[in-house]
Amino acid sequence: MISFIVRRLGQLLLLLLGISFIVFMSMHIAPGDPATIIGGPTATESDLEAIRKDLGLNEPLLVQYVDYLKGIVQGNFGYSYQNSQPVGEAIATRLPNTIKLAVASMIVAVIIGLIAGMISAMKQNSWLDVTSTTFALVGVSIPNFWLGAMLILLFAVNLQWLPVNGLSEPFYSVEGLKQLILPSITLGTASAALIARMSRSSMLEVIKSDYIRTAKAKGVKRKSVIWVHALRNALIPVITVIGINFGALLGGTIITEQVFAINGIGRLMIDAISARDFPMVQGTVLLVAAIFVIINLIVDIIYVKVDPRISYE
Fold first, then answer.
1. What is the pLDDT of residues 206-239, one digit of tens each?
2. The whole model's pTM is what?
3. Which structural domain, as residue segments, surrounds residue 229?
4. 138 in a domain, yes or no?
5. How many domains does the chain have?
6. HEC sequence for the chain
């Protein structure tokens, strides 16, 4: 297991190196000049040249990239072109909101998805199965921005039950939990639908296995067959979906954060791209990529705990 983790961490470093190169080159090759944005409409050509020299933008791209990597090794991700704030400090300020939203959304997705999928599998071809399947189809099809707007219109504007003012309150407070409800439902609906479909198909496959028929023939209670024997083996593909979706949620909070005015990594990334803020874009993309790969590593480790037949030795 330790050697496996070490190998995966080595792959993580190589992957992040490749991502950093692609993002760095993409931002610098794309049309537009950050010096013009920083200097404003009144800046003269000499002012723009001074800005480029100060930021190192007049150096060859490879030289700029090597300097950027040296800074990362030293824990320095650069400074924002917009407000001269350290990139690491800006990310540390916004990251908690994104993590809260992603975790709350995944909790909603897992609870709804697992319950719907298991009930659908145990009541195959019933009206519950049809309802669950329809929910999964609708959940995958509805865009986040539309669902978020409809939830705001219904629960915040018309009924005035829930607030829509970002995530300004601590999540453990009543007001903080209320602030999380609408955005977490908005972001978690699509993941819940995917989990429901996967858990249903996985459970149906496991239920038809020989060892399940043997357990039933030996007189094992139905609840024990489902929740003890079948569920654990059915969870393997479901865990994969949960892990991938959780990583995607961290990178996919952009639209939801915009709709609900949440100051998270998604909004920070959008603002940085609009302002051609190279260091901020590179820092946020690297963060999301690193979290995504680490989550996949954690999922692989969980496999061994859930199914003893899996080994990485």
1. 777 777 778 778 777 777 777 777 777 777 778 7
2. 0.78
3. 92-264
4. yes
5. 1
6. CHHHHHHHHHHHHHHHHHHHHHHHHHHHHCCCCHHHHHHCCCCCHHHHHHHHHHHCCCCCHHHHHHHHHHHHHCCCCCECCCCCCEHHHHHHHHHHHHHHHHHHHHHHHHHHHHHHHHHHHHCCCCHHHHHHHHHHHHHHHCCHHHHHHHHHHHHHHHCCCCCCECECCCCCCHHHHHHHHHHHHHHHHHHHHHHHHHHHHHHHHHHCCHHHHHHHHCCCCHHHHHHHHHHHHHHHHHHHHHHHHHHHHHHCCHHHHHHCCCCCHHHHHHHHHHCCCHHHHHHHHHHHHHHHHHHHHHHHHHHHHHCCCCCCC
